[in-house]
Design a protein that fits this description.
Structural class: mainly alpha
Strand content: under 5%
Number of helices: 4
Helix content: 55-70%
Protein name: DUF4389 domain-containing protein
Number of strands: 0
Keywords: Membrane, Transmembrane, Transmembrane helix
InterPro entries: DUF4389
Amino acid sequence: MDNETIKSNITSADHWIRLVFMILFAFILYVAAFVVGVLVLVQFLFALITGSDNSNLRQLGDSLTQYIAQTLRFLTYNSDDKPFPFADWPEPAPVAEAVVPDAAEPVVVEPEASAHMPTDGSESDDDRDDRQSKSV
């Protein structure tokens, strides 16, 4: 790189304007991270109390994390597109409602009695013979 190119880059208004936007979006990112933390806590408490998550909070979390990703892409020069409020707010993915089964009686499955296993817990002659022949 020659000195003219470096001087041109340093005096370019585009870089300095982007720096202002980067500082603005870095602050917004900090606030958004705090909001995500609150959202996680509220969603956990909601699930703890009601037994299932809240779909509206889930959609908010999805769109907010998409916004954070867009902001990070802008801050790291992976995108020149400025995120919200200079673009549309990200649309959340459709939420599939979780199906919560009704509380049913537990099903206890008894093991079938084997012809080689006595029901009293003692070892059968066939099992003892098999074990002895394998150890030889």
